Amino acid sequence: MSFSTLFFDLDATLYPSSNGLWDQIRLRIYQFMREELGLAEDIIPATRDRYWTTYGTTLEGLRIHHQVDPDDYLAYVHDLPLDQYLEH
Question: Which domains does the chain have, with CATH numbers?
Fold first, then answer.
């Protein structure tokens, strides 16, 4: 059996949760909310927390309230040098 593609789940399974990746993703989420949606910086943390608590993910809240395309959002917030966070 051969594989042409492998997918990895990066939710703290291939790296320690203390490596800072989620801190960077959170910053990218804030940046997305500010730059792509035009939200004021002072309301972003509370808005994100409310969406997370109410809908289970920030993305679901953004999809419902701001008609955010999931693919665009995920591409934006995960545009990070992931190799810097994986243990070699």
Answer: 27-84 (1.10.150.450)
pTM assigned to the model? 0.80
Task: Give residue for tokens 């997305």.
Answer: 32
Rama region for 3: left / alpha / beta (φ>0; ψ in -120 to 50; rest): beta
Report yes or no: 30 and 11 within 8 Å, Cβ to Cβ: no
Instruction: In whole angstroms, give the CA distance from residue 62 to residue 36.
Output: 11
Express each pLDDT in 31-75 by its tens digit. Answer: 999 999 999 999 999 999 999 999 999 999 999 999 999 999 999
